[in-house]
Each structure stands twice: as C-alpha cells, then as structure tokens.
Amino acid sequence: MVEAPAFRPGIQQSRERGFSPGGFRNFLLSPPSSSDESAQPRSFSHAWRALRHRNFRLFFGGQTISLVGTWMTRLATAWLVYRLTHSALLLGTVSFAGQIPAFLLAPFAGVVVDRVNRRHLLVWTQTLAMIQSLLLAWLALARIITIPEILALSAFQGVINAFDMPGRQAFMVQMVTDDRNDLSNAIAINSSMVNVARLVGPSLAGLVIAASSEGWCFLIDGLSYIAVIISLLMMHVHAAAMRRRAASMFEQLREGWSYVSTFVPVRTILTLFALISLMGMPYMVLMPVFAGKVLHGGPHTLGFLMGAAGAGALISAFTLVLRRSVRGLVKMIPIAALMFGSSLVLFGFSRWIWTSLVLMLFAGFGMLQGMTVSNTIIQTLVPEDKRGRVMSYYSASFTGMAPFGSLLAGTLAAWIGAPRTIMFTGSCCILGGLWFWSRMPAVRREIRPVYEQLGIIAPVPEEVEETGSN
C-alpha cells in the first residue's frame, strides 16, 4: 500500500473574485475584490481562485515578466546557433548541453529541495540565471560569442534549472497553503502564465532579432529576472511549511526512488512522458531548420511557428483553469499524447506556412495538456515530505530526457532530414499514448484510494465496479 498524502483538502472557500481597482501593485498585494463578482459569469468565477493567495499573486506577477524574457532567450539562442553554423546537429548539441544537467542532477536536486528553504533556493537560482543571461548578452552584443561559449553557458543554465524546476514545482503548494483545493487551479494558472510568455516571447524575439541582434534578447531576459527575484523576496512563507527531515541524504534518495518506482500512477505517468520528452519535445530544436529550409522563411517565420505552438498551449491551459476538480483528468493524458504525436507527423508533411501554423497550434495544445494534467495528478497524489524528490523525477522525465532527444533529433535530421525526423518521433509519441491507454485500469485502481482519502471522490462499496471517475 502506497503512502497517501498527509493533508486533506481545506473546506474554506473564498467568495472573493475579480480584481481590485487599485492597479497592478494592489492586484499583487491585495486579495481580489468580491465587489466585482456580480459582473462576471457565475460559471467562471472559480477559474482564478488561486489568485486570492497573496504569495501566488506575487509569483504570478514576477514570473509573467521573467518568462517572456526566458522564451526570448530560447528562440534567440537557437537562431544564433543556426545563423553561425547552419547545422541541425549543433542545434541538437547545444540543446543537449543545456538539458543534460537536469537528468544527471535530478535525484540529488530533489533531496536538496526537500531539505532547504525553497523560497531561498529559488532566489539563488533566479539570481544565477540572471547572471547567465547577462553574460550571453555581453558576448553577443560585443560580437565575440562562439559556439564553445554558447555550449558552456547553456550547460551552466542547465545546472541552475536542475534545482530551479523541482524547487518551483514543490514551492507551488506552499503558495496556496491555506486551501489545498486551490492547488490544481494554481498549476493550471501557472501553465497559462508560461504559455502567455511562450506566445509573446518568441514573437517578440523574432522582431528584436530582425531589427537588431540576438544580444538584445539576452539583455531583456537578464533584466526580466529582477521582477521574479523581487516577488520572491516579498513573500511571507509560514514556518510550518518549511519543516526539515533528519534522515540522511542517501536515505532520502532511496526513499524517493522507492516511491516513484513502486507507485503505479506516478511510475506510468513519468514513463510515458519520459518517452514524449525523448521523442516529441525536441521538435523545437528543429524549428529553425523548418523555418529556414522547409518553409523558406527567416526569424519572423520561426517566431510565428513557436508562437502558434504557444497559442495552442495557452488554449489548453485555459481549458484546465476552468476545471473545478482533478476528477476525469487521467484519460486526458493518452488523448493529449495522441494529439501531440499526430500533429507532429502531419507537420512533417507540410510545406505551407499556414498549414504548419495550424498543426503547431494542435501540437502545442496536446503537449501542454499532457504536461499540466500529469503535473496536477502527481502533485495531488504525492505526500508533502516527498514532494521535492518526486517533482525532481518529474523534471527529469520532461526535461532530463529532452537532451538525449535533442541529440537524437539533430543526428537524424542530419541523416534523413528534418521532416522525416519529425514524422518518426511523432509516431513514437502515438505509440506511447496507446500504451498508456492500455495501462489506465491499473492506474485508476491505485489512484482511487488516495482520492477517497483526500475527499475528491466518495468511497464506494468494493463490489461496485469502478467507473473511471478518477
């Protein structure tokens, strides 16, 4: 029998919705005003309920600004490497250097997240990330940047991300600590925030690169970290949310792996998305090739393709924000994988920009749907004392496998071409979705007792056949 989370959902439900008229600062520091509730449709009043938590409002404001810069740097880095080398293999190599630390350091990072003050950890990771972006900006604007320097700085950012990603995921529950019912809403809003930035950032980066150079994108990104650092410093985290474990680091490593490898729902979800990360996610590495050689465009085209994927992901996030419960989410995981894989296969056939943009919209929807639903289910199931370690494996499954996928995609694209590579990797995602579908009965059987203990679903007599409500 797996260990169930120690908490039960809170029962206090705030009636305060909407936004106070005091401007953006008041929005961040003051709870939403209930006076505006009547002006909003009743059926959607629950969609932003996590924003009534002060800490989450601060996080929302700071991260929204910072993530736009992050997505600008991602596109600018890819375009800079492609402009300097015109090599799909080197695109994959740079991506590999930036992501492999998350795979190698994930177990250790998870233990650190469970042992230290998560807010302080995030302040350090964001500060180091700012320094990395400013170094990139200086080298690029001085026109002295080279591929070895890009590789080294990408690897440095990867080390930072190895601690930052599980730290942010585990810190999410501390920002909505007054009511755990708001956790799934906070995760969905966070996904919306990420994908608004994903929609705006690449498009803005394409315009900045066309007007000047990649270095200005790196500079904007470096300065944008100031917002999230300030928001973290302004938060008030209860001391009760920062308890420490006396066990040794080795014991906690073993305990975290035991939980992840033996609890069927977590193991199955992470296995599928390790495959998706390996075979599907690296499609972004090849986007400069599609923009330049397949669709015969430039940085504007690359920005539009990335923006279309971001728009699809944003639509997906909004559909999840409107959900009131985690019930019914399990079946969305294989559906999302099938949609993502099918969109990639068809994208490999496309030679027209408008068709490609539509397919990127669906690919972004499927990718984000699967990622956010998986995150929500895992965060709901995991015990608080193991949260950092479990989320480090979550980060490893998504971003830790991606470097191998980036290297594989770059190598295959150099051998058989980018379109055929995308068709092959998309087909693997489809097979993964079908495999998960076959495992759903076992996943649901393991989830039901935990959901019953949390009060998410009502207990049923053992003789009643499960109907898939979880």
Explain this structure to me?
There is one protein chain. With 470 residues, the protein is mainly alpha-helical. The protein has one domain: Growth Hormone, Chain: A (Up-down Bundle). The chain has helices at 23-29, 54-85, 88-115, 118-141, 147-175, 183-211, 214-233, 249-262, 264-279, 287-294, 299-321, 332-349, 353-381, 387-400, 402-416, 418-454. It is globular and about 65 Å long. The protein starts with 22 loop residues before the first helix and ends in a 16-residue tail after the last helix. The model is unreliable at 1-42 and 239-244 (pLDDT under 50).
Task: Using brief descriptors, characterize the structure shown.
single chain; 470 residues; mainly alpha; Growth Hormone, Chain: A; disordered N terminus
Q: Name the helicity range.
A: over 70%
Multimeric state: single chain
Name given to the CATH architecture: Up-down Bundle
> Which fold does the CATH topology refer to?
Growth Hormone, Chain: A
What is the N-to-C order of secondary-structure elements (H for helix, E for strand)?
HHHHHHHHHHHHHHHH
Report the radius of gyration as a whole number of Å: 22 Å
In short:
This protein has helices spanning 23-29, 54-85, 88-115, 118-141, 147-175, 183-211, 214-233, 249-262, 264-279, 287-294, 299-321, 332-349, 353-381, 387-400, 402-416, 418-454. It has 470 residues and is an all-alpha fold. It has a single domain (48-241, 259-454), classed as Growth Hormone, Chain: A, CATH 1.20.1250.
